[in-house]
Predict the structure.
Amino acid sequence: MGRYVIVISFLLLLVLNACATNNTGQSANETNPSILRTSTNYNQEPSEHAKELIEQEHEINEVIAINNDDVIVIAIDPKQHDRLQLKKLEKNLKDSVESSFHKHKIELSTDQKIVLELRKLEERITNGTLSRADLKKELERIRKLSKEQT
């Protein structure tokens, strides 16, 4: 009888421990969106500031922003409940970012293709495998892609 109690107690402890483990590597109460900070020789300070503005303004899963001298391209992955009002969300966020950046043209998209393209570009910037001219070309290509899909 004592043997069964020990085995059942051990199995119960094992199940409870497995259920309490968070597999994502983040704490369960962490709700901050994924914002990657790029450290590079390009001046990405305006895009970093735009990410922070968007994070403060609304709950977003992921914000990716990259800038060159005259344009900031921003891609956001909104929370599921915000997808019902994408146009309104895009307009509100774009207006708030444009009010802070008068020198830059702002391109904001919620399209997943743009999110993926900017994520790749941000990785190339972080790795240092992108020249200034290539950055300008890539941002222009992504801007055209964004306009084609809208």
User: Anything to note?
Assistant: Residues 39 and 96 are 25 Å apart (CA to CA). The longest helix spans residues 2-20.
